[in-house]
Amino acid sequence: MQDLLPMTQTLSQLEHHGAFIQRHIGPSQEQQSAMLRAIGAASLPDLITSIVPADIQLPGPPPIGEALTEHLALTEHLALAELKAIAAQNQRYKSCIGMGYTPVLTPPVILRNMLENPGWYTTYTPYQPEVSQGRLEALLNFQQLTLDLTGLDIASASLLDEATAAAEAMAMAKRVSRLKNANRFFVADDIHPQTLDVVRTRAQTFGFDVLVDKAEKVLEREDVFGVLLQQVGTGGEVHDYGVLIAALKNRKVVVSVAADLMTLVLLRSPGSQGADIVFGSAQRFGVPMGYGGPHAAFFAARDEHKRSMPGRIIGVSRDAAGNSALRMAMQTREQHIRREKANSNICTSQVLLANIASLYAVFHGPSGLKRIAGRIHRLTDILAAGLRQGGLKLRYTSWFDTLTVEVADKAAILERALSFGINLRSDLHNAVGMTLDETTTREDVLALFSILLGAQHGLSIDALDADANAIPADMLRQDAILTHPVFNRHHSETEMMRYMHSLERKDLALNQAMIPLGSCTMKLNAAAEMIPITWPEFAELHPFCPAEQAGGYLQMIGQLSQWLIQLTGYDALCMQPNSGAQGEYAGLLAIRRYHESRGQSARHICLIPASAHGTNPASAQMAGMTVVVVACDKQGNIDLHDLRNKAGQAGDALSCIMVTYPSTHGVYEETIREVCQIVHQFGGQVYLDGANMNAQVGITTPGYIGADVSHLNLHKTFCIPHGGGGPGMGPIGVKAHLAPFVPGHSVVQLDGVLTAQGAVSAAPFGSASILPISWMYIRMMGAEGLKQASSVAILNANYIARRLRSAYPILYAGRDGRVAHECILDIRPIKEQTGISELDIAKRLIDYGFHAPTMSFPVAGTLMVEPTESESKVELDRFIDAMLAIRSEIDRVANGEWPAADNPLVNAPHTQMDIVGEWSHPYTRELAVFPAGSANKYWPTVKRLDDVYGDRNLFCSCVPLSEYP
Ligand SMILES: *Cc1c(COP(=O)(O)O)cnc(C)c1O
């Protein structure tokens, strides 16, 4: 059907046409009609009505925000303009506040080619190593950087932030401690306050006593299993903890040290002084402060503790041809296998930001980094000398980049700093703090003199530039860092650009093909949604700046919260958790605190269905709860009989249930209201895991269904890109009775916005700087657009299920054989008959140019496909055709045409090396590499990874020089 001529349309029809909705939703109206016909549905609303249980369908249109219902959804340009006006209410001061956050100079070559490049930001967590070698290499570089700077043996590929890394260090110290009866964790009294806040929150649920005192005092304390020190105190003092660490090691106390990446360039590594665990923020390696995040935390430990590490480790393994190849090691499926015994609940972490930090080190190399760190330190020496000359007293005699200056008239000085456009640290007793960074200029130092000494200070930078050094000689680094060639080759922009592109080309991202990952919602991350995150108005704010300077952020966060409240049917929203799993933890804490507030602290049992995501039991354990598994029936639904029994048995000890809706089996359970009622009846709360919100938005809400609290994965449903495994945001929505119990923050207090509870993240609003992505999405889709998106996501999944069901059995279905927004293909019968497994199909899909679906979750031996609404019918058909072609390849194995041990499936994926040299396989090279034709061919760079070899030989630093090209 041809469009009507523009002359015959009304103005509002013409305007509607420019709407973003049609850009976000893949299938056109005609394609939707064709798909509806193919699955035998009369219309989209009919389809939804027939799938979603009647008792949970919202009676009216989705009740989203006044702005959104009054006006049409905004076009990309209008939404950008509206957000720009909001952003303009943020005030861009120069923040010398420090406390773990500094301004940075993101190298433009990294900004443009990585942070703003969908080839990097739309990739998925590298579970399929054959399509992920580029970002795996960047992450391995991050680990190498961590190892070199910390002086330890094994490093992971990023945690969520420095404060949560500290909590992980404490939990790990307890795991590895040989002092089984010790229950105290000692914290030096000059760690950053937000770190202490998060550690305290975590210690409470674990039942640890946290002791805070001067570091030396630890030797006077008994029953301490672990210690947390900060190499450079929050006030700037450089500590030489060598002797103390040795004494603690004698007593078998596990020592963790928080450190700063830039400082470590010049300072002795804590590892070389005996520390067991070293961690910190990688923010100042090129990642903007962004009002608190996202930033990567680094984390390293001794080799003997490698099986106890939290988070992911990238390991060097080899592929089927014996070539070295990278993969996620050990921890990869840790949560899904070990559940509540997992080392941590971290799933989404900060991959994109870790990679920015890693490439910052590649770009600058060891001498560039030393120059940058040296300049920061020299400027600090000059500042210190000038202030002393001017008669001021510094609180400490050693420093790297931070000074604490004693002042009598603190308020006046802070005020004067503001008039210079500078923020100083304001929370110190009778002192102000200032931290310098790579953006600091001579003029800035002169301004600091004027602020502290008055305009007539008469100081000159050059006159003060003496050879002073406030780092104790013993604390200066002697060993070389970053000697690996990767850190010494790519210093010109041309080389750097090409290196980054060479990595990008190895990976399969959304700019190449659909990524049909069940439970992960790999939908469009639109350019207009991404643009605001690098606006300086959002990027440059320090998380602890005066609230008046963050007016734009607070307005944006307030609006987004309001919209999410309406979309979830809750009463309040907490924007602090910086991943879905952290949201689970925060939500469970709220439940725990609520029970405690009513004198029911005995409620500790958390019911979790057998099908739950691995983070659920891991989070429950972190929240100090005991997991009891509830059975699922043959259809994959929660077994109500078992639920009633387990809830009854728990009795007064029942805390809550964690359910995912629609279930991880991809169906809308008809009994969800009953599930909520049963749990409530026994005095429990309902935690509804919101990872599958893409099947609810605009159609139903967790609040309407009867749940008390949910996290949202903004990096799934609300368009924040996966970034290769992070960043993410996991805000929680709660009913009113839980609202007083969501996390607060000890450094930032905002009445009516933050509670007085302990924090779960370093920053009050988590990874605030990626929230504009979700804001833009909702603003451009509007209420109706969001409902349409959910509806089309469901249509797309049902279209795939219908077209594939004769080739692959669909494991679970609801009424009329329909699925929700994803479907599970059961490969077990195929494997039984033919020997071809879900793994073979996943790898063969690579030859066809696709990323595999989710493998063996929630059921072993299956593939879970989630197309999302963003994929057009053309792309769905291409995927379906590939899956059908693979099915006929399986048949050729089944009927003996190809041997079970030598066929295109078990040998997949094929690389360019397969088109040259010997060829002895019973199928052609053409079929091997071009099963879907040669146009737009994606080439994996390695053959299938050898998992067994990788598990046995854990090697997590850069490949040896002999193997480096
Ligand atoms: C993704 C997911 C989570 C965890 O979210 P992260 O952001 O990765 O921590 C939890 N539950 C379900 C069902 C999920 O799909």
Average pLDDT works out at 95
The SS-based structural class is: alpha/beta
CATH architecture of one domain: 3-Layer(aba) Sandwich
**The named CATH superfamily of one domain:** Type I PLP-dependent aspartate aminotransferase-like (Major domain)
Main sheet makeup: 7 strands, mixed
Bound ligands, named by name, code or SMILES: pyridoxal-5'-phosphate
**What is the helix content?**
25-40%
Counting DSSP E segments of at least 2 residues, the number of strands comes to 24
CA-based shape:
globular
CATH fold field value of one domain: Aspartate Aminotransferase, domain 2
Q: How big a fraction of the residues is strand?
A: 5-15%
In short:
This protein is α/β, with parallel strands linked by helices and 965 residues long. It is 38% helix and 11% strand.
Describe this structure in words.
- It is globular, with a radius of gyration of 28 Å.
- With 965 residues, the chain is of the alpha/beta class.
- Among the domains are: 237 residues, Aspartate Aminotransferase, domain 2; 247 residues, Aspartate Aminotransferase, domain 2 (3-Layer(aba) Sandwich).
- The mean pLDDT is 95.
- Strands 2-8-7-6-5-3-4 form a seven-stranded mixed β-sheet, sandwiched between helices. The chain has a seven-stranded mixed β-sheet with strand order 15-21-20-19-18-16-17, sandwiched between helices. Strands 11-12-14 form a three-stranded antiparallel β-sheet.
- Helix content is 38%, strand content 11%.
- The structure holds pyridoxal-5'-phosphate.
